[in-house]
Write a structure and sequence with these properties.
Elements lengths: L1 E5 L9 H6 L7 E7 L1 H6 L4 H20 L4 E5 L6 H12 L3 E5 L4 H14 L4 E5 L21 H14 L13 H5 L12 H5 L17 H14 L4 H4 L12 H6 L4 H12 L4 H19 L22 H8 L6 H13 L4 H14 L4 H11 L5 H11 L15 H8 L4 H6 L8 H5 L16 H20 L1
Parallel strand pairs: 1-2, 1-4, 2-3, 4-5
Length: about 475
């Protein structure tokens, strides 16, 4: 018996672990998913991403069912129980081999290490690469260390891709009916099974937020359409939040209903080198995974740059609440926050603007912003979210210089010149003049607050405070 352990790879297509486990049509195959709600809660992952995982888990179960591959869902609770529960599953099913795709965060690596040790030597564990174009252990510098700067990483990454081009796995064939019959009497040793879990999923209020459709077929269609019609304008359009200039597949990547290799292959097959501006974002994705792999302390609420420990970050409750309730008095910031609260997604340009404002103008701890995004994003991805917030706070690897502070006013004037995006997400400003909205620091509105801080003064203070923190670090 071969067992596929699904994690953040809830798909059939281009799933190396599934493909390898099912490569021999005569070998019985089953899938298992360890549902860990307490772990999700510990990580501060909100109902949006949680519900998306569970909805796609249900779809995966139906797809596997059509292939005569049963999916066993076990209520694991916490990662610490994974090894023992998998041992029970393997013993009951008489499993000879377990196949799973590598995850890069530290807790997941420790969990997998415990699983391998617990199952050995009775069960062979096969680890495959599915969550990056290039595994992080192949992108190292001359000192055998991970890269700290993206430009150098990108060069090394491209060299590996030339030697090991991206190849998608073969389709999984339908198993004989006997595959299901051999498992029909299985019991999970009193664990909660799939039907009970799948009928008690946390729900997102459909009157506020609808779950995005990230099914495998829909996402592949959406990406194909984007690469055919929009990818050539991506480098320009991606910065304008009122334009649908991005692929909008980040939620699918986050739960694994499409692979990064599929994304790369589809883009190159349609537009080739002309799609490089978009495929470069996939390399950034690999970079942040490489950072986690080579510098695991970044997975432990620690910044890559030790200067973070010299900074006296603020935790002002009033300032935090005004951000979370979209009442900062900065139109582009509040519009972005409302977009997040009402859709579970925020435009990438605005993620940087919001993060810069929170960390540089309000001097709030970047971990507060990271947790706020985790609470609301459908496309929550630990590596991207963590890396992005550290970059904006100038405490991460390849971080923005500490004196780089996004000016929300100039950002909205440049990327929302006609205030179309602001008016969409801030109804109280819909009737206001464009000039008045852009001059918000000097304007007064009937139903919109004044700015909570002076942007120029707080920018200057942030630069000085960061300079002092760096001096303390050197000392």
């Amino acid at each position: 018996m071969n067992l596929i352990w699904f994690r953040n790879d809830l798909r059939i297509d281009d799933n190396p672990a599934l493909s390898r486990a099912a490569s021999c049509i005569d070998s019985p195959v089953a899938g298992v998913y360890l549902y860990c709600p307490e772990q999700i809660q510990q990580y501060g992952i909100g109902a949006n991403h949680h519900a998306l995982i569970l909805s796609q888990l249900e779809q995966l179960q139906h797809k596997l069912d059509r292939l005569n591959i049963p999916l066993i869902i076990v209520n694991c609770g916490l990662f610490s129980r994974a090894a023992q529960l998998l041992k029970i599953v393997c013993r009951e099913l008489k499993v000879a081999s377990v196949y799973f795709n590598v995850e890069y965060p530290l807790d997941e690596r420790n969990r997998d290490k415990m699983v391998v040790e617990k199952l050995s030597p009775e069960v062979k564990c096969h680890r495959l690469v599915a969550d990056s174009l290039v595994p992080p252990w192949l992108t190292i510098n001359g000192q055998k260390q991970g890269y700290k700067v993206f430009s150098a990483f990108e060069k090394a990454h491209q060299k590996v891709l030339l030697d090991l081009p991206v190849v998608l796995t073969e389709d999984v064939a339908k198993r004989p009916n006997s595959n299901r019959e051999k498992l029909s009497n299985w019991s999970a040793n009193q664990s909660e099974l799939s039907d009970k879990i799948l009928h008690s999923l946390p729900k997102v209020n459909p009157n506020v937020i609808d779950l995005p459709d990230v099914s495998e077929r829909k996402v592949q269609e959406r990406l194909t359409e984007f690469c055919t019609d929009k990818v050539l304008n991506y480098s320009n359009d991606r910065d304008y939040p009122s334009i649908k200039g991005t692929s909008e597949i980040s939620s699918a990547l986050a739960v694994g209903t499409i692979s990064v290799s599929q994304c790369y292959s589809i883009a190159n097959s349609i537009k080739g080198k002309e799609a490089k501006s978009w495929t470069r974002q996939l390399v950034w994705r690999d970079f942040y995974r490489s950072v986690m792999w080579h510098f695991p302390h970044t997975c432990m609420r620690q910044a890559f740059n030790p200067v973070d420990k010299m900074i006296n970050w603020s935790n002002n409750p009033e300032a935090i609440q005004r951000v979370k309730s979209a009442k900062t008095g900065i139109p582009i910031i509040d519009a972005a926050i409302n977009q997040l609260l009402k859709t579970g997604w925020m435009h990438n340009r605005l993620r940087m603007v919001v993060a810069s404002y929170l960390t540089k103008n309000l001097w709030l701890d970047w971990r507060i912003g990271e947790a706020f995004f985790a609470e609301h994003l459908f496309d929550y991805d630990f590596a991207n979210n963590n890396g992005g917030w550290q970059w904006s706070a100038s405490v991460g690897t390849d971080a923005a210089p500490y004196f780089r502070v996004f000016n929300p006013q100039s950002q909205q004037q440049k990327f929302d010149q006609n205030t179309q995006f602001i008016r969409q997400w801030l109804p109280s400003l819909q009737r206001e003049e464009i000039k008045k909205i852009h001059r918000f620091e000097q304007s007064q509105f009937d139903d919109y607050p004044s700015p909570q801080v002076d942007l120029k003064a707080t920018r200057k203070l942030a630069i000085e405070s960061f300079k002092n923190a760096k001096a303390l670090g050197v000392a």
